[in-house]
Amino acid sequence: MVKPVTKAVFPVAGLGTRFLPATKSIPKEIMTLVDRPLIQYAIDEARGAGITDFIFVTSRGKSALEDYFDRAPELEHALEAKGKDQLMQVLEDTNMPSGAISYVRQQQAMGLGHAVWCARRLIGDEPFAVVLPDDLIAADEPVLAQMIEAHNEIGGCMMAAMEVEPDKASAYGILDAESRDGNVVKVKGMVEKPEAGTQPSNLAVIGRYILTPQVLENLHETGRGAGGEIQLTDAIAQQIGKDPGVSGLIFDGERFDCGNKGGFLQATVAFGMARDDLGPEFKEFLRGLKLD
Ligand code: UTP
Fold first, then answer.
1. Which of 134, 234, 258, 264 has the most ligand 1 atoms within 8 A of CB, as the residue to mutate?
2. Can you give the pLDDT at residue 64?
3. Which of 8, 37, 40, 186 is most buried, by CB atoms within 10 Å?
4. Which residues of the chain have pLDDT under 50?
5. What is the pLDDT of residue 42?
6. How many CB atoms neighbour CB 145 within 10 A?
């Protein structure tokens, strides 16, 4: 029987250089999409998938991120005194139960694989999820919930996958699929950023994973890979061909790459338009724009 997934790791120790100068003092994950920091969307997705333990891998300069999940007593009292119940509820939704969040530190940004490995003592001997808050996915059913549901059936390691245009494949890790059953593909290989025209498929790996504890052991042995960083995909690739092996779930949803400025802007427009309170006026504004 597959053990249930109740823990999720949020690696947020990266330098966020693509957002300089903002990230000189603001963690990328605190940057605001409409009125909520990126990290809130990731947490809500994980909560919606039944995750109960939230493990953040942080670094120097990320204290704003830790504070964000604390209660804000002064603010709460002020809102209560003014009878602002709706705003009280907005704040309430950001609170987490005591003990649900843990933080571990990655002392040096040595790559995503290293960041996940830093959380090994908190993960223990059970399958766990990894959520990259940069990858924001608008979906009716949270993508992590879609993955956990599929994982409960097959176990092993699972990566979120999405179809990309052939000319975009060289920007992603691309799956080499052995077989496909509905939305689940069995993986026989992975190629990181393939040269144009050499990609084995059009299925790109996105920042949601469900991993087995074996991957943590693999990470322990994994040396620095591409870019001099310890790569998570190298440790996952070692599980290919084992039983249970590695699969990809082609999720239902629309993904925005909020790790770069263009993707963040697109997400801001899409999420702004989708909001009941802001959408109608915002759409009118957009319609009136002269685009040339
Ligand atoms: P990115 O590749 O987006 O790197 O990391 P980055 O540092 O955040 O951003 P740029 O490229 O400099 O603009 C993907 C995810 O892995 C985490 C990041 O915080 C992000 O969530 N990460 C990356 C770590 O936690 N530690 C690392 O050493 C590297």
1. 134
2. 87
3. 8
4. none
5. 96
6. 18
Which atom of ligand 1 has the smallest separation from the CA of 13? 25
Nearest protein Cα to ligand 1, atom 4: 14
| Other C-beta atoms lying within 10 Å of the C-beta of residue 120 | 17
Q: Would you state the pLDDT for residue 227?
A: 74
> What is the 133 CA–ligand 1 centroid distance (Å)?
10
Q: How far apart are CA 168 and CA 50, in angstroms?
A: 33
3 state SS for the chain: CCCCCCEEEEECCCCCHHHCCHHHCCCHHHCEECCEEHHHHHHHHHHHCCCCEEEEEECCCCHHHHHHCCCCHHHHHHHHHCCCHHHHHHHHCCCCCCCCEEEEECCCCCCHHHHHHHCHHHHCCCCEEEECCCEEEECCCCHHHHHHHHHHHHCCEEEEEEECCHHHHHHCEEEEEEEEECCEEEEEEEEECCCCCCCCCCEEEEEEEEECHHHHHHHHHCCCCHHHCCCHHHHHHCCCCCCCCEEEEECCCEEEECCCHHHHHHHHHHHHHHCCCCHHHHHHHHHCCCCC
* Closest to 120 in 3D by CA, of 132, 106, 108, 134: 106
**Which pair of tokens denotes residue 51?**
């995750």
Tell me how crowded residue 119 is: count the other CB atoms within 10 A of its CB. Answer: 23
Which residue has a Cα nearest atom 18 of ligand 1? Answer: 14
Task: Quote the ligand 1 centre to 117 CA distance (angstroms).
Answer: 14
What does the pLDDT read at residue 91?
A: 87
Q: State the Cα–Cα distance between residues 232 and 228, nearest whole angstrom.
A: 13
277's tokens? 């309170």
Name the burial class of residue 143, with classes exposed (0-12), middle (13-18) and buried (19+) by CB atoms within 10 angstroms of its CB: buried
